[in-house]
Amino acid sequence: MIKAHALLPFMATTISTSPEATQALGESWAADAKSGWVIGLEGDLGAGKTQLVKGIARGLGITDPITSPTFTLVCEYEGRMPLAHLDFYRLENDEHILAAGLEPYFAPEGITVIEWVNRWTGPRPAHYRHVTIIQTGETERRIEYENSSA
Q: Which residues are CB-contacts of 22 (< 8 A; sequence separation ≥ 6)?
């Protein structure tokens, strides 16, 4: 007999045909969000990482404008649970991320979403979803994601 384990990772792929569709995916994830989740986003400039965050924020009831925190490193928002939006683009490695004091965001009281998460090579948070966004057309994106825990 084979037993399924809830903590085993699974992979899924979604094709988004517009920024609005990418936002809708993020909004659907927010509906199931639980405190302590960390979502790591990987993708080229303009791939749609911030569009996904906009949807997550909307799903959490956040009405503030969402922009990528490239120069501020962190934007925090209040909704039905707190959302921390981080951007590691300007940070080169784990040492810079730790020196910037960002480690507490790996165990949030709400949800943390990290753009350019591939700059971090340290341990993954306990409740982690890794997302890769690949531009496949002018407005089309292939969004691949993994959950390491449910």
A: 16, 48, 51, 52, 55, 133, 141, 143
Amino acid type, 1: M
Query: Looking at residue 139, what DSSP letter applies?
Result: S
10-residue mean pLDDT profile of the chain (150 residues): values are 47 93 96 93 94 97 92 94 96 95 94 95 90 94 77
Domain boundaries, the chain: 10-147
CATH of 10-147, one of 1.20.120.520, 1.10.560.10, 3.50.50.60, 3.40.50.300: 3.40.50.300
What pTM does this model have? 0.89
Q: CB count, 10 Å around CB of 37?
A: 23
- What is the predicted pLDDT for the residue at 9? 59
**Interatomic CA distance for residues 103 and 21, integer angstroms:** 31
Q: What is the pLDDT of residue 106?
A: 95
In order, the DSSP letters of 54-123 are: HHHHHHTT--S-----TTTSEEEE-SSS-EEEEE-TT--SHHHHHHTT-GGGGS-SSEEEEETGGG--SP
